[in-house]
Amino acid sequence: MPRPPYRIPTVTAVVVALSATFGTGLYASLGPAAASAGGWFPLGVVLAALLALATVASTAYLTLARPAGPELARGDLPVCALRLGAVARVTSRAAAGSAAALVFGAYVLPTQPVTIAVVAVLAVVAVNAFGVRISPGAARGLVVGTLLALTVAIGVGLSAGGPQTAPSSAMPAAATGAGLAGDAAGTPGAPAVATLQAAIEPGPLGVLAAAGFVLLAFTGLSRVAELGGSLRDPARAIRRAPAIAVLVTTALLLLLSAALLRGLGVPGLASASAPLAALMDTGSSAPVGVLVRIGAAAATVAALLGALSRAAAGSARLSREGELPAFLGRGGSRGTPWVADLTLGVLTLAMTLLFSATTAIVVTVVAALVHHAVLHAAVLQLPGRPGRAAAVAAAGAAGCLVVAAAMPVLPLLATVGALAAGWVLCTVTARSRSRAAAGDAVPRTDPEERAA
């Protein structure tokens, strides 16, 4: 008698969702958020959580309302909008890989973060090309380890006597509005300043930019919806698991905010490239800090592995749909799109060498916000949608666009340029492949052409 296929229970789906949020954002987003909004940045955490919940709701509605699942499909929106959403998703994942690698380097070897980041990208590209992926069991271990490391960090921070300085770990971050220069371009003691259209003092207006930085922690929540038929109870898991992950991660971020503010203060937090390591150093907890660094390294490597594999899968899917060159869809004997793995690896490596961690985070978040806005628009176009789903989608789309516009100007413009270039590439490729297919389909009636 054939053995029934294994179905993932809802509890495991929650673990998978948590593993998507327990990555780079927890270890790196609060520094630039504090630089953007000063002491107001915890409000940015709350705003980011609300935007994430809106995206989770729209993703769940799309997944359960039509056969295409969580992916945007033809008929949801005009082709130009769908193409923009697809390009934004791939761009966000590639930039997320760069951000994860740079944060990994900042925690593992603060004196040479870029070198370590490059090594990490090369290693993960090789692993991806051989078809290695994160299993639910590995995700469970990652969640447990991250919770342990963060609990230690929160305890050290909340028990600290007050803000202190830690030169060894609190290296200056790149000015978030200053451009694409590396993190070391700033001056010690001069916190990064977020911008809308020009530099502003950290305060309430910077809460929007702070929310954008914190959204880095919530950019991978579609993993549960992508499990689809592997879930034991899809309707329940797709609705609840990502929402639970958002709530748990938000609570952790707020606790971390309180601990970092008490241990480092706003200036120390805003200038730290590895905030949790800096917190351990200021709290005279260097031995305990090893645990935090190990937790950060594991979480960021997992984030790098997931981001690059998902970016390659998205590129291969676009290739099969005729939107990108056909060679990107080639797979190996293991079924993995090794050409897309290598191509996206090269793109991520270039961003790792050219961008600072802060800039990579901005590109990741802005591209993700564009994709989320397109996703919300798809919900608004579905016939027979309930009023509640439409209201959530409309508010989510508006919030995504407002927060994206509030991000630092030069990285924002770089993201717009990257999305435009990707959109043009897809448009030209689609038209070229469509003409080639139409030419092959035309029957040859001329005797000389037949002979030829």
SSE order: HHHHHHHHHHHHHHHHH
Overall strand count = 0
Do you know the CATH topology? Amino acid/polyamine transporter I
Strand content: under 5%
Describe what this molecule looks like in 3D.
The chain is mainly alpha-helical and 452 residues long. The protein has one domain: Up-down Bundle (Amino acid/polyamine transporter I). It has helices spanning 10-21, 24-28, 30-37, 41-65, 79-108, 113-129, 136-158, 207-214, 223-227, 234-270, 275-282, 286-320, 338-354, 357-381, 387-405, 409-441, 447-451. Helix 14 packs antiparallel against helix 15. The chain is globular. Mean pLDDT is 82; it is low at 166-200 and 446-452. This is Amino acid permease/ SLC12A domain-containing protein. It comes from Pseudonocardia spirodelae. The chain crosses the membrane at residues 7-28, 40-65, 86-108, 114-134, 141-161, 205-222, 243-265, 285-308, 361-382, 412-430.
Topology:
Elements: H1 10-21, H2 24-28, H3 30-37, H4 41-65, H5 79-108, H6 113-129, H7 136-158, H8 207-214, H9 223-227, H10 234-270, H11 275-282, H12 286-320, H13 338-354, H14 357-381, H15 387-405, H16 409-441, H17 447-451
Helix pairs in contact: 1-7, 1-10, 3-8, 3-10, 4-8, 4-10, 4-14, 4-15, 5-6, 5-12, 5-13, 5-14, 5-16, 6-12, 6-13, 7-10, 7-12, 10-11, 11-12, 12-13, 14-15, 14-16
Main attributes of the structure:
mainly alpha; Amino acid/polyamine transporter I; 69% helix; globular; transmembrane; transmembrane helix; APC_superfamily; Amino acid permease/ SLC12A domain-containing protein; AA-permease/SLC12A_dom
